Amino acid sequence: MQAMVNGPGTLVEMRNAGVHRGGRWLVRGVDLTVRRGEIVTLIGPNGSGKSTTAKAAIGVVRPDEGSVERASALKVGYVPQKVAVDWTLPLNVERLMKLTGRLDRKRIAAALEAAGIAHLARAEVQNLSGGEFQRALLARALAREPDLLVLDEPVQGVDFSGEIALYQLIRDIRDRTGCGILLISHDLHVVMAETDTVLCLNGHVCCRGTPENVLKSPEYMRLFGARAGETLAIYHHHHDHTHLADGRVRQADGTITENCQDHHHAHDDGDGSLRVKERGHAR
Amino acid sequence: MLDDFFTRAMVAGVGLALVAGPLGCFVVWRRMAYFGDTMAHSALLGVALAFLFEINLTAGVFIVATGAALALLFLQRHGSLSTDALLGILSHSTLALGLVMVAFMSWIRIDLMGFLFGDILAVSRVDIAMIYGGGVLVLAVLAWLWRPLLAATVNTEIAEAEGMRPERARFIFMLLMAAMIAIAMKIVGILLITSLLIIPAAAGRRFASTPEVMAVAASLAGALAVIGGLTASLRFDTPSGPSIVVAALIIFLLSLARLPSRRPTPIKSGGPS
């Protein structure tokens, strides 16, 4: 599986990959390539196989069909969706940095600085807030100077302005180090400006392309339209063409228009809308 | 110096505690207390089988404890019962099997109490050589395994993604546990082995800011427990193995006491999500 992949700069290449667990396919037929210097974003509803796809890409789960090829000696930096450290394990941020490899102090300090948590180097990870811990995990993955950075919803627990700053940081990392980034996000509008390719998943790849094209594609609208009531009410406004434009404007300068907020409050059902509400109150 | 049985007991016990410290930390961090107990209980089956096939006792215990661990891993993957239930089944059935087998072997006189609760005062020079030889080996392997095992303990997926091979680390750790149980059986007995792993580690948590410091603190707490427990058992004529465990418990309770200069460690289950 750890073979040389085709094409220069290709870090990981999945062909028709599928993962079967507990009697059902978590995801099937995924074609995905991440090249050096490229940011690929996976979006999709809950249970659509985003995390599974990312895990298959880096070898945490084995594909049951298709193939996954990684560049030889590929150095991965991984930020999983959920990390819980048992309180019996004394672990401060500085020690967390060195979890999977030796690092000198300078690199640790630089990574903590970049993630904006230099002042927390000595703090125990169990005492960090959700957002701080997320930054610490990101700093840990960064400090390794990986070829491929895999971030599974890296901004959970981070407030809206911090969220935008973190995505900018992720893009800066790519620009500076030239690594490839595989990003999982629930909010396409926020990551839009930073991503090159978007894969929209729902048990399979339902559409792909540049963020603009994916936003416009009928598959994307159908997917999030059909599931509107279930989980991600935040996607409601994607289908409203007047609001599609608003979303982009908001993304560009980081402000939400009055109009947009009212719209979200109207759909008060599900996790997604709750997030939006929180944002609305925050400003 | 080793002529005196009490000195021999002290040297053996301290050596064991030094090995148990770091190993016990991983047992606590990985929430494997009951798992360790199960491996230890299977040791009696190992003893019985060793007598039956006339092989070395320590080797027999090592093999059976490893087998119990592997059986559990297999059942976890392919069975439908919860780990908790599986542990309960394996733990007590291996112990019972051992007891029944020993009862059948009427041609051998076995000091059952010695195996169950340990007989540290009967430690020989050979036993001491075994404890220190085996102990150094266990600690050396653990030092080599430290980074992958710790990474796997914090998060298996990160460890797997970043080339730490967590499955291999876990398997080697089980072998180390089996080795520890094999050499510790004579000292504290199979019913009390896990206490020597867990209690000093728990006591060490209070004073540690990094995993490495906690491992050393656990070793020291364990050594202190052995010295205190043995001394007390001589003074009050109490059984030595249980006395060591009681001493460890007292050290643990003292470690919970609030120190004026330090912030108390918040007790949470799990980290931030």
Would you kindly provide a written description of the structure presented here, covering whatever features stand out?
Chain A has twelve helices and nine strands. Chain A is an alpha/beta fold and 283 residues long. Among the domains of chain A are: 141 residues, P-loop containing nucleotide triphosphate hydrolases (Rossmann fold); 56 residues, no CATH class. In chain A, helix 3 crosses helix 4. In chain B, helix 9 packs across helix 10. Chain B has a domain of 185 residues: ABC transporter involved in vitamin B12 uptake, BtuC, CATH 1.10.3470. The C terminus of chain B is likely disordered. The chains are: A alpha/beta (283), B mainly alpha (273). Chains A and B meet through strand 5 and helix 4 of A and helix 6, helix 7 and helix 10 of B.
List the helices and strands and how they pair.
The complex is a heterodimer of chains A (283) and B (273).
Chain A: E1 10-21, E2 24-35, E3 39-43, H1 50-58, E4 65-70, E5 76-79, H2 93-97, H3 105-115, H4 130-143, E6 148-152, H5 160-177, E7 180-184, H6 188-191, E8 197-201, E9 205-209, H7 211-216, H8 218-226, H9 236-239, H10 241-253, H11 258-266, H12 271-282
Parallel strand pairs in A: 3-7, 3-8, 5-6, 6-7
Antiparallel strand pairs in A: 1-2, 1-4, 8-9
Helix pairs in contact in A: 3-4
Chain B: H1 5-29, H2 33-53, H3 57-78, H4 83-104, H5 112-117, H6 125-154, H7 156-161, H8 166-188, H9 193-205, H10 211-236, H11 240-256
Helix segment tally of chain B: 11
Computed CA radius of gyration of chain B, to the nearest angstrom: 19 Å
Strand segment tally of chain B? 0
The CATH class assignment of the domain at 1-75 and 146-211 in chain A is: Alpha Beta
Biggest sheet architecture of chain B: none
Q: How many alpha or pi helices of chain A?
A: 12
Tell me how many strands of chain A there are: 9
- Topology-level CATH name of the domain at 5-189 in chain B: ABC transporter involved in vitamin B12 uptake, BtuC
Strand content of chain A: 15-25%
H/E element string of chain A? EEEHEEHHHEHEHEEHHHHHH
Indicate the mean pLDDT of chain A: 76
**In terms of quaternary structure, what is this?**
heterodimer
For the largest interface, the chains and their residue counts are:
A-B, 38 and 34 residues
- End-to-end C-alpha gap of chain B: 55 Å
| Morphology of chain A | globular
Low-confidence stretches of chain A: 226-283
The biggest beta sheet of chain A is recorded as: 6 strands, mixed
The CATH architecture category of the domain at 1-75 and 146-211 in chain A equals 3-Layer(aba) Sandwich
Strand order of the largest sheet of chain A: 5-6-7-3-8-9
